[in-house]
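User: structure tokens for Membrane protein, please.
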Amino acid sequence: MKNIERVRTPLSDLGARAVPYVPLALFAGLGALLAYLWKWPCRFGAAWNDGTLQFTNFCYTDIYPLWWNEKLNEGKVPYFDYPVEYPVGIGGIMEFFRRIIPGDPGTAEAGTMFYDLTVILMAICLVVGVLMMAALAGPARRWDALWYALAPALILTAYINWDLAANALALGALLAWSKRRQWLAGVLLGLAIATKFYPLMFLGPLFLLALRTGRWKPFAQTLAGAVGAWLVVNVPIMLFAFDGWKRFYVFSQERPADWGSVWYFFQQKTWPFVGDPERLDTLGILSLGAFCLGIAVLTLTARDRPRLAQLCFLTLAAFMLTNKVWSPQYVLWLIPFAVLARPNWKPIALWMVAECWYFFAIWLYLVGLQEGNAHLGISGDTYFTAVWGRAITILIMMAFVVRDILKPDKDVIRQDGTDDRAGGVFDDAPDRFRLALT
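Assistant: Done. Predicted tokens:
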């Protein structure tokens, strides 16, 4: 009987710890369902196959047309038979579903099944991501994860692309780091970078906090794990299908300023210097570098060390603001880190309004560009109010986070006396290096 009791006790403890997360999982499932229903005119109607209706019904997705555009309907293997314009993590998802979809791959039913299977995977990634975000926030703030589960912008954009998969991996990496499992954190981060490029930005905050605390070994382990995992999934494709593999990187380098980016506004309005297409890459790198330099100075000079989530938010926001493309679904990247950095509902709600306006504005702008459809859309000037609306609201949130770093008494996360719950080895670590400006 004693042995039985020893087995039951850990299981009952595990169940007790899991119970508070069940409602969050259900809310995340509700968010996933609402996102699926939002695509109703496309998924259950004819809008996907109509260049106008998919915009006027606001149900566009990349997933369905890419079944044909990436030649999956012809049985072509990503990278090997056709140069897919996505990192290998997404290419792997495409290939997995291509192999298991039955019947004639050239039919509309096959494309719809490809979408449905992808949605199931993304819904799982959303639920997992919400639970990991709640674990990162801690018992006192786990309900902050509802912002991720049910954010209006998430419901509108969840199934445009494969971003939720990268989110789950990135949040998993930070959760592993918070539990001081550095190798696992590195592996998950490397896989996240191999799926979408943005998690690469999180290495900067880890480096800066390692510099300030002197915790170099954990950082080195995570970096090695990230590099190793990225190489494991990329090198085989590089060796046997290099031309197909490099398509994503060549495309990213060569693409012009695109919809959503402030650079697109500057070019469309022919602003001098900043609107010059020949200077786009240089200006993008320099502006991102300026943001990162400012974040580095802030990290190394602040009286109290910034929290990891604050720096992850700032670097990711800087990446989005300076990128030459800013698709509607990129909001998914930022939601969990914005909330972990500063769970204050007023600026987040303002940002959600701006993101929702952008979501509707981009499709109305695109339909208005089509010949004969100008009466259905909006003008460029109206569209650009949405471009700047979300950029300005993100800058406002960044300013509040900077204030919280400079004045820790304003940081709601630290008001209960905690240092950095999600910081792992950085939590309550003494400073080893700090720059003094005065």
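User: Anything notable?

Assistant: Residues 96 and 429 are 44 Å apart (CA to CA).
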